[in-house]
């Protein structure tokens, strides 16, 4: 039997009781003299508190409702477990960040052992850490992927994570893997979504989610979690990757579960759990940055009629302010994959980073579009993809030399489906993998170099060369040659145009 006495009246207590219904037991709560008494505390059961007992402010429910399972209020979770397990109380201060882990019984919504959370250090993910602990009684391992978002985004992350209540922060540098294994295959395939979007965010999510699955295995986690909203594409991209790589993992998506509806609610929750609120200035735009691109959404962009403000852009200068003298760059390509710049070989990530700087200086790669989200709604976004725009133009232009007409047509038709699969988060779908094998095969001879001129926001191709070029000057020349006899064209035209000629004869009754 356990007794709790002399609990002062200054704040609220939340109580969740779980246990078998017992006809021979009763619970009575009394508020007089600022105390409550468990007259008969199911003497054969255990009491587990998942948070520190604070003083009474509100306690609802009748004693009869506490037989079996009941949640009475919201601050403290008490769990009555089967007998012969002893009494365990794991407590934490209301003024601290510690929402204690309940090793038996779980949190308000269930029980998980350890959760790997996709963590950025921003307000939302900082709040998710204590929310997971409170609601699932679990340890939280924060995971951050470096996909080229910038060093400032990584500063102080470990301190932030631990201050929020995480037991560990894992950071992995995925830049080279991201470019080599995700960006470059899309580039080789010519994947572009709805005529404009070069899939920057779409390609980043599977590499991050894959790393989360790996970390979950390494730390022995039984669940993964993300901070994506229920209205966007990213929730699908993360979770389809989880499903494909480890279907046994539990997935927790707080934005689809909790009562937090916006920034003010999140700040209030953070203060309540003494989680340091990020002091960085809140951007009026929703942004996602990686080595391939920077996206902008929200604020005035939500009205498609509004022109973006110039101070919104971060990777590229206004084309009118770009240098008055054009810059020429020569991109070396091997089997459809960029490998060098101006004769110098770079690693995938280094090449892209270098071209981002060059392209941004010339105002290259700004795209403003209204796209169809996977979940059904339209959204307006503005993208900066300076290096990616240069590379996309270079690879596509080299294919004009190395691929024949039929191959280009089939490749372009498949590129649309390829882009759709990537946008929808189906990176690890066998269909995309099979299409990638096709793309790899047909671009085996797409090797050579392309020279481009960068000038005030535009990319112009000025030269291309390949040892596998199907272009023959001796055939294409207007001068007479042995291979192409111009007189042969007459018979070709008559045969090629025969269906049209027959139809016209029919219409005229000939």
TrEMBL record:
One of its GO terms (molecular function) is ATP binding. GO terms for biological process: argininosuccinate metabolic process; L-arginine biosynthetic process; urea cycle. One of its GO terms (cellular component) is cytoplasm. Keywords: Amino-acid biosynthesis, Arginine biosynthesis, ATP-binding, Ligase, Nucleotide-binding. Residues 114-276 form the Arginosuccinate synthase-like N-terminal domain. Pathway: Amino-acid biosynthesis; L-arginine biosynthesis; L-arginine from L-ornithine and carbamoyl phosphate: step 2/3. Its EC number is 6.3.4.5. Pfam families: Arginosuc_syn_C, Arginosuc_synth. Residues 285-502 form the Arginosuccinate synthase C-terminal domain. InterPro entries: Arginosuc_syn_C (IPR048268), Arginosuc_syn_N (IPR048267), Arginosuc_synth (IPR001518), Arginosuc_synth_CS (IPR018223), Arginosuc_synth_type_1_subfam (IPR023434), AS_cat/multimer_dom_body (IPR024074), Rossmann-like_a/b/a_fold (IPR014729). NCBIfam families: argG (TIGR00032), PRK00509.1 (NF001770). Homotetramer. PANTHER family: ARGININOSUCCINATE SYNTHASE (PTHR11587). This is argininosuccinate synthase. It comes from Gossypium hirsutum (Upland cotton). The lineage of its organism: Eukaryota, Viridiplantae, Streptophyta, Embryophyta, Tracheophyta.
